[in-house]
Amino acid sequence: MKILNLKKLACITAIVLAPFIAFAGGTNSTSEGKASTSQSNDPDSGMKEGDMGVVGVGQSSKQDTVMVDDATLTTNVKNALKADPTLSKLHIKTEVSDGVVTLTGVASDKRWTARATTVANSVKGVKSVNNNMTIGHK
Q1: Integer Cα distance of 114 and 92 in angstroms
Q2: Does the pTM of the predicted model rise above 0.70?
């Protein structure tokens, strides 16, 4: 098998396994003396329908509103997008104004634009995300 084919296989494997790794969890530390399956009985545990449960690197969930300046927010969103294995190869331009993130760039599939929105929205301090990415090839 050629090296190029091995690289393609590794990329495909990473893309296929990424959602499973993202959802892999430990135990629920809030239960007292009970075994846990890391599942919550709360029907709205902060996730929206279709949300991939992504939390940016070094970020927490958006349950508490935090004021972050636009320059810091831009850096945090860019870092979160680069940290995501499915988005790290895309050239996504990030602009922030008053906590509103605007994403531009090209993705090969609608799934990647949706994922970019989810990742950007997971960064603490982001008020909303305008995804102006297009579908196509560079």
Answers
A1: 13
A2: no
The three-point CA angle 107-60-70 to 5° equals 65
Per-residue pLDDT of 24-61, as tens digits, reads 554 444 444 444 444 444 444 444 444 455 555 544 44
How are beta strands 128-131 and 100-104 bridged, if at all? parallel
CB atoms within 10 A of CB 110: 10
The helix-helix angle for 110-121 and 70-83 (nearest 10°) equals 130
Tokens (6 digits) for 135: 């579908």
Distance, CA of 106 to CA of 112 (rounded, Å): 9
> Which of 110, 57, 52 shows the shortest CA–CA distance to 84?
57
> What one-letter code names the amino acid at 32?
E
Domains, the chain, in order of start with CATH, read 61-138 (3.30.1340.30)
Length of the chain: 138
Q: Compute the distance between CA of residue 4 and CA of residue 121 in angstroms, rounded to an integer.
A: 35
CB of 116 within 8 A of CB of 92? yes
Residue 138 exposure: Cα atoms within 13 Å on the Cβ side: 4
